[in-house]
């Protein structure tokens, strides 16, 4: 599988679209200093994923930077492959290309595309990437590709046509099932949302706010049903059961224990996403508090 130079088994997932890029970069440097091995971020109509990766990679020393995910409807497969190979050549082992089919509302309204047959669309996209000739970056190796995989068929495609999977909003039990489908030799990078508070009411408020948009998207609703939740849990913002299942709440030790559950279930790397009262809140205070409990330095 494609090489990734993770220097620890825990990284960060941060939706930083609302932040000026220079401020994102200054926080990325501290994230690296705290011992987190990676910084992943999404692409949903905000900053362009590859440009942000170039800035973060160039402004840090060892931090792995990952798209979590780059929307395949936002650029052609040859353009995505060429950009990824260039970033991989400049920063060997430090760029991870996470790819996803996104969601029907975003694709159809923001990108004026078609969301029919997402599995075959992804399969064709990967095949077109593979066909890009090596001359686009002579001597460079293709960086690791991870797929935003929730269902069994996309997970299987992650094993056969990519270097692994990057599941989002999943339980440790889902991580275990994903590992079984991937096999032992593919990357598994799981995301874990975190509400760092010992006040249960505050934790639930943050979790419900975080789940508000996701609970209205069919991909996540179907994923949660496969994970054992019921239709009654899929109210807007999620039920308490869903909120507690998707968001680790409590002090630093409780959060670290949930991260360990993902690692014990077969994840190679876990990304903590700080969920605060404000979606644009600075994640660093919580990341500083968490780092010792996670064994980082």
UniProtKB/TrEMBL annotation:
Report a single Gene Ontology molecular function.
Answer: oxidoreductase activity
| Boundaries of every Luciferase-like domain copy | 15-183
Pfam families per UniProt:
Bac_luciferase
Name of the protein: LLM class F420-dependent oxidoreductase
List the keywords (alphabetical).
Oxidoreductase
Cross-referenced InterPro entries: F420-G6PD/mer (IPR050564), Lucif-like_OxRdatse_MSMEG_4141 (IPR019922), Luciferase-like_dom (IPR011251), Luciferase-like_sf (IPR036661)
List, alphabetically, the SUPFAM superfamilies matched: Bacterial luciferase-like (SSF51679)
Q: What's the EC number here?
A: 1.-.-.-
- Annotated organism of origin: Streptomonospora arabica
Task: Look up the coiled coil feature and give its residue ranges.
Answer: none
- NCBIfam families given in the database record: F420_MSMEG_4141 (TIGR03620)
């Amino acid at each position: 599988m494609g090489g990734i130079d993770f220097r620890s088994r825990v990284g960060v997932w941060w939706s930083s679209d609302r932040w000026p890029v220079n401020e994102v970069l200054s926080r990325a440097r501290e994230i690296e200093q705290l011992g987190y091995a990676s910084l992943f971020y999404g692409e949903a109509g905000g900053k362009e994923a590859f440009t942000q990766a170039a800035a973060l990679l160039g402004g840090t020393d060892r931090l792995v930077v990952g798209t979590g995910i780059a929307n395949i409807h936002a650029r052609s497969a040859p353009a995505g492959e060429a950009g990824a190979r260039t970033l991989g050549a400049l920063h060997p082992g430090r760029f991870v290309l996470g790819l996803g089919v996104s969601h029907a509302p975003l694709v159809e309204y923001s990108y004026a595309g078609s969301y029919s047959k997402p599995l075959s669309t992804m399969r064709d996209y990967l095949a077109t990437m593979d066909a890009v000739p090596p001359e686009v970056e002579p001597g460079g190796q293709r960086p690791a590709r991870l797929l935003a995989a929730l269902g069994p068929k996309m997970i299987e495609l992650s094993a056969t046509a990519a270097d692994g999977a990057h599941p989002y909003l999943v339980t440790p039990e889902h991580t275990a099932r994903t590992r079984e489908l991937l096999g032992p030799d593919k990357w598994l990078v799981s995301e874990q949302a975190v509400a760092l508070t010992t006040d249960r009411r505050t934790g639930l408020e943050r979790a419900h706010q975080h789940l508000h948009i996701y609970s209205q998207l069919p991909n996540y609703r179907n994923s949660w049903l496969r994970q054992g939740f019921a239709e009654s849990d899929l109210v807007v913002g999620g039920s308490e059961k869903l909120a507690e299942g998707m968001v680790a709440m409590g002090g630093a030790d409780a959060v670290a224990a949930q991260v360990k559950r993902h690692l014990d279930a077969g994840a190679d790397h876990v990304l903590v996403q700080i969920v605060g009262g404000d979606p644009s809140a600075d994640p660093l205070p919580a990341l500083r508090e968490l780092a010792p409990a996670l064994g980082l330095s």
